[in-house]
Amino acid sequence: MTLDATDRLLLNELQAGFPIAASPFAVVGDALGLTEDDVIARIARMREAGYVTRFGPFYDAAAMGGGLCLCAMEVPADAFDAVLTKVNALPEVAHNYERTHRLNMWFVLATETEDGITEAQARIEAETGLPVLLFPKLQEFFIGFRVAA
Amino acid sequence: MKMDHIDRALIAETQAGLPLVAEPYAAVAEALGMPEDQVMARLRSLKARGIMRRIAIAPNHYKLGMTANGMTVWDVRDADVAELGARIGALGFVSHCYERPRALPDWPYNLFAMVHGDTRDEVEAKRAEIATLLGAACRASDVLYSKRILKKTGLRLAKGK
């Protein structure tokens, strides 16, 4: 499928927020001039086609008393796969990206407690023999992303 | 902020997403064996307490054709980072913007702004816009493109805790 203008409008509107109401899709539809069924069907189609990765509440690990931290490692090319296997084996590693930099492995640790971050860092360093740099957020400046409507 | 077992059950039930039915909160309520109005009140409370940020859709940038994903990083004067960070975060093409600690000498950058585009040229053009906005307050910058997604799982809260 490809997205039409209405799909894009929905995608943008629903990035900003979704109402807490008994019939929330009807509320969204009323605001956009769409029927409740159409809103539900379009979201379902976009999700099935992979345009939507998630639809629902976004919880804040830090506010739940847990830890959340961006981490980076400099991994030698010939050890990359072996290190990757060890890092990804930790359930605390939520996202992991290979990036174009001397620091070439960037991942997010999400832990149930704040102390879990340094514990996971120590475990990865012990298992891989490589330093793990921690980049916790100090301030967030977030407005939100918009696809071209 | 403390959470009780009902908060935890609600988070565990909804962290993977809401059901796509006309009355999703009623469906969640039924799964948890609690009244619908209590589910909605709890969600409002979780939001008020900052535990839930929002209920929303997360688009797949790659699928939308935005295959160039650049983490732009900037060394911004500490005195200016709050004001300039807010302006960078407000740019329509920036999806996330954070102040993070430097890791000297390896890493001089303290402002991170994620920029998505169809091509790396597009990301470079947006990066140039950010550079103009930061002006003399910025001493150095770089951009790290994602080469591969190595893992992507959501936040996982164990059920029944």
Automatic annotation (TrEMBL), chain A:
Keywords: Lyase. One of its GO terms (molecular function) is lyase activity. Residues 7-51 form the Siroheme decarboxylase NirL-like HTH domain. The keyword Lyase applies. It catalyses: siroheme + 2 H(+) = 12,18-didecarboxysiroheme + 2 CO2. Pathway: Porphyrin-containing compound metabolism. Residues 69-141 form the Siroheme decarboxylase AsnC-like ligand binding domain. Pfam families: AsnC_trans_reg2, NirdL-like_HTH. Its EC number is 4.1.1.111. Belongs to the Ahb/Nir family. This is Siroheme decarboxylase NirG subunit. It comes from Dinoroseobacter shibae (strain DSM 16493 / NCIMB 14021 / DFL 12). The lineage of its organism: Bacteria, Pseudomonadati, Pseudomonadota, Alphaproteobacteria, Rhodobacterales. The gene is nirG.
TrEMBL record, chain B:
This is siroheme decarboxylase. It comes from the Bacteria. The gene is nirH. Belongs to the Ahb/Nir family. Keywords: Lyase. It is an enzyme of class 4 (lyase). Residues 7-53 form the Siroheme decarboxylase NirL-like HTH domain. Residues 63-151 form the Siroheme decarboxylase AsnC-like ligand binding domain. One of its GO terms (molecular function) is lyase activity.
